[in-house]
Amino acid sequence: MLGCMSGGPRLLIVFAVAVLLFCANKIPELTRSMGRDIGEFQKDARKPRTVKIHD
Predict the structure, then answer these.
(1) Is residue 17 pLDDT above 70, yes or no?
(2) Whole-angstrom distance, CA of residue 41 vs CA of residue 43
């Protein structure tokens, strides 16, 4: 199946399968954390910014 692929794509597929097999229980926690971080970033991006200029 992977015989016709060159080294780069083959390695990516093998790496993706290994991550899914060995880290499958961490994926929900990781996606939850990423969602919280994105929400926090968006919340901070909506805040008005004030700049104080001292003469």
Answers:
(1) yes
(2) 5
